[in-house]
């Protein structure tokens, strides 16, 4: 792109011309009052704010320091789109690059995170990533990224608009967080009661482990979709990646899913559960999952809320012990003590959580829409200086 295609005051620059990879080093963080450690796991996709971290007091081998006003970029698995704007000082992992303007009279630090969040920057990061299991880009590759740089007064205007849009997203996120807290409070209030009688899980639900995976089940002669462990998240079924394998007529009868079934993870994050609502026709499940099917009038929704409460209480960890690889066996699952409210109380529990889930769904949609609007604004404003001829 030539400079003739840009509006007055705008210019094409390479990222490395106006940005430096700060790469500050701090070898004694605790002694120098640095308290927080940030890894890639603490940076959420499409979220410029860091809300979680580890403590330096717990020990660290990391030495890369970041300071307020820097932009943190996750160079590993760039498709995760992890960018954050530092609002405190800390130590970060080697998978994070720390950017800052070379000259604040040429590039405002407040605009830099939005440049790094742009589709063009991420595409460049992906195109320059190497490695199959954990692809990563590098500063050497990123500094060659070319983009249109607005004049300083325009940078300030764009940054103000985009931070206002970001605050709108954050407001919806705060509402969502409050709803999550309210949901947890209700869960604790209900299941901490001592006056509800208990029954063994096996007296409320049938428990069936899924079909074992094997090369023989991949012939394609009688292929059907099935759910794996990763498809079952807390209170939701993730259908982004659903695989297929063979199920005989007898197996289809044994491993069928019907609305109201609860799927429980046998390994990994043991106990993680979600209700099947019939999202896919003729869908089955594999051995990494237990299927709970009601054999009484006990509500699946109430049972799901109990499972979430049990996880927070550490009941699944207690059941699986302290082995390296935890597994929740059918025998142990069947013997779990489950509090059993009256039918009237179950109806109240169902209603409350149904309303809370509905509200969370609405807020989640608002977060997605507002985030999309922010991204659209960013794309338009950061390319506004380009003349389309």
Would you spell out the secondary-structure blueprint of this structure?
Blueprint: E1 11-14, H1 15-18, E2 19-21, E3 24-25, E4 36-38, E5 54-55, E6 64-66, E7 71-74, E8 83-85, E9 90-92, E10 96-101, H2 112-116, H3 119-127, H4 139-142, E11 146-149, H5 152-191, E12 198-200, E13 205-209, E14 223-227, E15 232-233, E16 236-237, E17 243-246, H6 249-254, E18 262-265, E19 273-275, E20 283-285, E21 289-294, H7 300-313, H8 315-320, H9 330-334, E22 337-339, H10 343-382
Helix pairs in contact: 5-7, 5-10
Give an overview in words:
- With 389 residues, this protein is an alpha+beta fold.
- The protein has three domains: 11-149, Adenine-n6-DNA-methyltransferase TaqI, Chain A, domain 2 (Alpha-Beta Complex), CATH 3.90.220.20; 151-194 and 346-381, Helix Hairpins; 197-340, DNA methylase specificity domains (Adenine-n6-DNA-methyltransferase TaqI, Chain A, domain 2).
- The chain contains ten helices and 22 strands.
- It has helices at 15-18, 112-116, 119-127, 139-142, 152-191, 249-254, 300-313, 315-320, 330-334, 343-382, and strands at residues 11-14, 19-21, 24-25, 36-38, 54-55, 64-66, 71-74, 83-85, 90-92, 96-101, 146-149, 198-200, 205-209, 223-227, 232-233, 236-237, 243-246, 262-265, 273-275, 283-285, 289-294, 337-339.
- A hairpin with a 2-residue loop joins strand 15 and strand 16.
- Helix 5 (152-191) crosses helix 7 (300-313) and helix 5 packs antiparallel against helix 10.
- The protein is elongated.
